[in-house]
Amino acid sequence: MLGYVINRVKSSIIVLLVVSMITFFVLMIIPGDPAQLILGTDATQEMVEELHSAMGLDRPVYQQYFGWLADLAVFNLGTSYVYGESVLTLIIRALPVTLALSVLAMTIAVVFAFLFGMLSAIMKDSFIDYFSRSIMQLGTAIPSFWIGMVFIVYFGLKLKIFPVPGVPVTGVGLSGFMRSIILPSIVLAIGETGTLLRIVRSSVLDSLKQDYMDMAKIKGLSSGKVYLKYALRGALVAPVTIIGMQFAKLAGGTVVIETIFALPGIGRLVLTAVEHRDIVLLQGLVMFITSSVIVITLLVDVLIMVINPRIKSVERGE
To answer: How many other CB atoms sit within 10 Å of the CB of residue 174?
Structure first.
């Protein structure tokens, strides 16, 4: 397994280099002078040129790229034009909101999807199966922003159970923070549950058709042991892969939900960077999100190899 992880790390470094080149050169050709954006429209040409020199923008592009790459290697992501603060500081400040939102949303989605996915597969063509299949379609068909707005109106404004958007989520203690992220987490979970529930159901159905399930029943094992130990274990690979992909997507920033609920997470930071053409902030966020997705994908692959040793044998060519 160590050899597999080392090979994956090597390929991840290549992916990061390719993404860094695309990110740097594509964002460099976007119209707009960073020095002019910082100084404003009243700045003279001399002031703009001085700032160009101070920021290294008068150097050849390849020198700027390698300088930026060297800074990335020591976690120096530059300073945001809009906020006037280090990009790394802004990411560290926004990360807890997005991370808490992603973890809570995926926890809700996983519990619901595994519970109803297994019941749906075991009791195929029953009421619970039709109910679960309806949830699959609803979860994937209804846009998250619409569910979010309905939830805000009903649970926030009418019933006043949860705080409405705009209420601070930091400096309000753990209970205040959790109350602020529960509603958006549920909205995100609804969007992810449909896909995950479908994968769990189909994987368990496939697992139930395997020969080892007949052997387990012939041996007289209890239903709980047959379904939880054998059927669920045999069906874990596909759902775990999907969970990893969904979590990586959410951890990279949930722009729509964070905007609707006015949450200061990574998604809102991305939106601000795009709106104000803050190239340094955008470059830093793209590299951070790419790195996060690569790390999460690597962890999921290692977890899958632990769950299913047959994959490890295939990787070794056995």
So the answer is: 7
